[in-house]
Specification:
Blueprint: H1 2-21, E1 28-31, E2 35-41, E3 46-54, E4 69-77, E5 82-90, E6 98-99, E7 104-107, E8 113-117, E9 121-122, E10 128-135, E11 143-145
Antiparallel strand pairs: 1-2, 2-3, 3-4, 4-8, 4-9, 5-6, 5-7, 5-10, 10-11
Length: about 150
């Protein structure tokens, strides 16, 4: 009987926390091998990190050819929050990641849009890249990263 009481109290506490925290939002990821994107919705808007292969001039290309580069675009649409976005690279199949771009800071109100684009970064054979962002308006916010290409 004592276990049921603790379980019931735990369930009520969990429901209370979830109800007061608001609805959870999950990442939406998409990729087709030449670009990749992660999107996170908020109560009023959304933010995304978009990564694509480009040539030396910054024109989109269809695959990782030599020489190939990657470029990331970050967008915040009416989120009401501040976020930081960056481009990262792995040279060991995705086991370890290193930030290669500067940090791009975006901030929006509930009625504004902000976006930013990285420079082009070499993306040769054996390299993987991801575009990532994190809301910085509150502690403990998750990092959202695109699929690796």
């Amino acid at each position: 009987m004592r276990r049921i009481s603790r379980a019931a109290i735990g369930a009520v506490a969990l429901v209370t926390v979830l109800a007061t925290a608001g609805a959870a939002h999950a990442d939406t990821v998409d990729t087709n091998g030449r670009w990749a994107e992660v999107t996170q919705t908020t109560a009023d808007g959304w933010a995304s990190a978009f990564l694509q292969f480009v040539d030396a001039s910054g024109n989109p290309i269809n695959d990782k050819t030599t020489p190939a580069f990657v470029q990331a675009t970050f967008q915040s649409v009416q989120t009401g929050y501040t976020l930081e976005g960056w481009l990262q690279r792995s040279t060991d199949g995705g086991a370890n990641w290193k930030q290669i771009s500067g940090t791009h800071v975006l901030s929006t109100t509930l009625t504004s849009v902000d976006d930013s684009m990285t420079d082009r970064y070499y993306d040769g054979p054996g390299y993987l890249a991801q575009a990532c962002f994190k809301f910085t308006s509150w502690a403990g916010a998750a990092t959202h990263c695109s699929p690796a290409i």
